[in-house]
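Consider the following input, taken from an annotated entry for OBSCN protein (Syrrhaptes paradoxus).
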Amino acid sequence: EPDVTIVSGLKDTVVFEGDDVTFRCQVSHENARDVEWKLQDVALQNNEMNEISVEKGKIHTLTLRKVTEQDIGTITFRVGPYTSTA
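Applying the prediction step yields:
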């Protein structure tokens, strides 16, 4: 099975309190497993505040809904041994 790598990494984003923000990371192969999103080293789950999805098989997205000051920090996307941060 080929190594899944990050083709296009996360971009730093400035957002206002109460707004939604979306992060995108493109990987080299579809159906990547061992994928993880984190905010300040805390793993994020798909729920009403965090929408985690995959577009076109390779573009992994994380949308944080109605961000607050507590959401300030580093977002990390990890696939296997590779990471991207913003």
